[in-house]
Design goal:
31% of the residues lie in helices and 20% in strands. It is built from 12 helices and 23 strands. The protein binds manganese (II) ion. Manganese (II) ion (MN) binds next to loops.
Length: 506
Amino acid sequence: MLTLTHIADTHLGHRQYGLKQREDDMASTTRAAFNEMIEDRGTDAILVPGDLFHSRDLRPKVLHQTEQELARVPDNVPLLVSRGNHDENLTPRDVTWLNYLHQRGHVVFLKADLSADTDTAQFEPYDPDDPGEYAGFYDIDIDKLDGPVRVFGLQWRGAKTGQALRQVANGIQETNETHGEPAFTVLLAHFGIEDEVPTLGGTVTHGELRDVKEVVDYLALGHIHKRYEAGGWIYNPGSPEAHNTREGRDDWEHGYYSVTLTSDASGGDVSVGFEATHHETKRRPYYRMEFDVTPYESPGELESAFREHVQSERSDVEEYCGKSAYTAQGEPRSPILDLRFTGTLQFSRGDFRTDELASFAEKECDALYVQVNTGIRTANVQQLISEIDEGEVFKDGQLNTAALEDQVFETIAQESMYSEKASDVADVLGNAHQMAQAKEAAEDIRDTVSSARRDLFPELVDDVVLDIEEDPFDDGDGDIETTTSETAGDEESDSETDETAEVVSE
Ligand SMILES: [Mn+2]
């Protein structure tokens, strides 16, 4: 009867690891998905609930490429988009790139008018003759049905999403009273849901969705880069590309949905249902390789064992990258290698040359990039932990967690490249931990750590990059978690001398 295609989080312009090739991946993977949905599967509309673009300060070249790509979408297939956290503008009053694309007729930018003074969101109908800067809803008319398929959009609201959802539920009801009842209702929105993937902010409870459920048949979500579905009406396709090693894992599905509407007139009234089918996008593979450092007494021993290990795993890497999900136009793509060192290091950390090991693995596996993760402990650290001052940590039989935390952070700092100022670094880590517990934005934590690092170590020029990973101590309430890992250069820089970590902000 009618097919809608739902894709999200394309992150066009994301130059991951500073690599042009990754920016090209974002564009080519999205283009291949669009071609497939338009030419092979057939679609009557394309829904993009947020993070069309990766960066708010879009480079002109990325905008130009995007305009060219969007021009390939046939005129009779509307592209309905809403705003994600990555599409927001630096200053809220500015016109965003989505407004710009809307005005030029490339997309229909759907957005709710939310005011703190009222409990009801306002939604204006889309007028192709006078599009303005955005619209509130878009109607797709179908002959056989009494009403249109009506698509609404809610922009990224972060911590205010719960409140916005109440306003949206009321607003949809009021819109339908004014403009007539639709046969089927879709809401585009950008947030995560409790019990799904613990991630950065914007986590909504099922209770907060109750009112919206009354007036929406299909909730088209973006934000979490992993496929999930809930309650027979909530769908999140997972970003077309993986954006960090966690998202690159096998259990993270990435792709888009074809949503085919079905009608049933057997009971007299026509009732509309739907069937959603998920299709995997063809993307760049992440291959995880682990190496236990424990058995090796010297750097030389470790290095030769590592070389053997990589060589013996090379055929597995090839086989993995040959899977159809990773094969663009029949050609396997070079993987991003997620190289994890585990175990206990038997010699000094300073003699553990991960950069040399990584570049060997990169050549041997024909990898595009190697992301090094050192989850190792040194024998030295284990000894230090056993020497933690119990008198200070246990006071009157009570565990003083702050004192314990401080000692642990100081121990970690002593074993790192920051050992000269271990006590100061422990303070910075403790402060970052408190900010995370207070659910402060990851960007703010990163900025605070970066500026402290600049003060303490002015000779290190790069900023710190944050990696938000699953926390082994997570109690399931979706707290922000931070871990650090090494990379051979962060997102924007080419430095290879720095201990930094991946950024994750869905
Ligand atoms: Mn995203």
